[in-house]
Design goal:
mainly alpha, single chain, two-stranded parallel ribbon, about 190 residues
Length: about 190
């Protein structure tokens, strides 16, 4: 295995590194072991190093998914960002008639909340929440750059599915599949 040392000491070098990620995760570097160090964003650099050194695609996808979920949870906890319900009724006047607010049409919803760890659902917030807080978007989570563009689209848009289904769709990772799921969701919501 060939070793590649990458040292990142400034934000400009970090930005250049992020632009080269598509190359580092390609088949050209499948026999390369990365050692990434630096003085800026050390936690993100270690996550990138670990993800790049995982050569099994399913394991890499799972690692990126877990890190992104953990990052979103930590950010939301630190900034006190969560949907505001009182007795399962949303504070937003537009959603007060619906139980569980924006998630009212999700078939996974239970009386105790959502049992799914869905990345797209964690990124979804209504306009009311965007006005009160400034939640994360997919562009704010650097580890998602390890996904291909089609997988990033799936990670952003594939709401209201279980974690296992979400990961299976990420493993397939095609735009065609994303279009099929979006169309079926559209028809399902029109019939409600």
């Amino acid at each position: 295995m060939i070793k590649k040392e990458i040292i990142i000491n400034t934000e400009e070098e970090y930005a250049k590194f992020k632009k080269k990620l598509w190359l580092y995760r390609s088949w050209l570097y499948c026999f390369v072991s990365f050692n990434i160090s630096g003085k800026v964003r050390e936690k993100e650099l270690k996550d990138f190093e670990t993800a790049l050194n995982i050569k099994n695609d399913k394991k890499r996808t799972r690692f990126i998914y877990d890190r992104a979920c953990k990052f979103i949870d930590e950010y939301n906890d630190a900034h006190c960002i969560c949907c505001e319900y009182h007795d399962s009724i949303c504070e937003d006047p537009k959603h007060q008639k619906m139980k569980n607010g924006c998630c009212w049409y999700c078939h996974l919803q239970t009386n105790t909340g959502c049992p799914s760890r869905n990345l797209a659902c964690k990124l979804f917030f209504c306009d009311h929440m965007w006005e009160k807080h400034h939640p994360l978007t997919a562009k704010d989570i650097d580890i998602l750059l390890m996904f291909s563009p089609s997988r990033r689209a799936i990670a952003r848009e594939n709401t209201f599915v279980t974690e296992e289904t979400f990961l299976r769709q990420l493993d397939i990772g095609s735009y065609g599949l994303m279009c099929i799921y979006s169309i079926t969701k559209l028809f399902r919501f029109k019939n409600l």
